[in-house]
Amino acid sequence: MLIASLLILIGFASLIFGANWLVDGASFLAKKNKVSDLVIGLTIVAFGTSAPELVINSVASFDGLPDIVFGNIIGSNNFNLFVILGIAGLIYPITVQSSTAWKEIPISLLSAVLVLLLANNFFSQQHLEISRTDGILLLIGFILFIYYVFTQLKHEKGEEVSYNAQPNYKIWGLIILGMAGLIIGGKLVVDNSIAIATNLGISQKIIGLTIIAAGTSLPELVTSIVAALKKKSDIAIGNVIGSNIFNLLLILSISSFVDPIQYNPDFNQELFILIGGTIFLIIAMFTGKRKKLDRWEALILLSFYLIYTTYLVAKEI
User: Fold this and answer.
1) Could you give the count of Cα atoms lying within 13 Å of 315 in the half-sphere of its Cβ?
2) Which residues in the chain come in under a pLDDT of 50?
3) pLDDT at residue 193, rounded to an integer
4) What 3 state SS string does 56-89 have?
5) Cβ neighbours, 10 Å, residue 167
6) pLDDT for res 309
7) DSSP string covering 261-281, please?
8) What is residue 175's predicted lDDT score, i.e. its pLDDT?
9) Which residues of 6-32 are buried (b: 16+ CB within 10 A; e: fewer)?
């Protein structure tokens, strides 16, 4: 058990370093080819923070572990919304100034509702799963979201950033090391989490919703805390909402392409919590004059997550 726990920690470290190396290498490559900073931020950095979820879910889907897939995605989104925004909002109240971010919150709500309907086969009479057809629908949703963001970017002016040219061996070395770190880390986390769950008699659902979800959200956590400390509210909330949309529309669709994902209706409760939390965020952001998530509202988010997670774990034990 101790060895398995250490291997999980090593796996998470490998995921985080791998994601950072991949982002750095891809950013250098993009800069070398004169790709704009805005496009790099939207695509490469967003993918980098979601890469741990993508790798773990692809491994879990390939291994036939649907509860890990859904537990990780829904758990990561709830962790992002309740814990990361909760902590960031306690550090510095989050004021949304960008009209883009205002629209992204409702998009994340619609994405969660779409997953709830597809997983419960609201549109068909088949058994409960996210099929490859469902995955195509989610991927279309993701492409539409990316198109929407690119149209918004055309109206914004990017800042010129100085760039020191990097040799090709360093660029490709970072990309290859990053991908290797992600693959090795993902496999270590999934395999050893399953081993611990089996030994303790804890369900894969709980492992996915707690340990794996929190671990794969570490890049978002660090990014949002740093943004809050620097009083960059739009980055703090944009990182969380963007990541949640990536997880639901892109990562779940790719996981379904690997293998259709059987859906456990017990996850409906977590999806309703995600939807309810997003609605709470909309109410907090769009009521009043200041469009702000105050510290007391952030405390409600964080407290709810801690109480609910304690209840989930206690119920299992």
Assistant:
1) 9
2) 159
3) 84
4) HHHHHHHCCCHHHHHHHHHHHHHHHHHHHHHHHH
5) 9
6) 93
7) EE--GGGHHHHHHHHHHHHHH
8) 86
9) ebbeebbebbbebbbbbbbbbbbbbbe
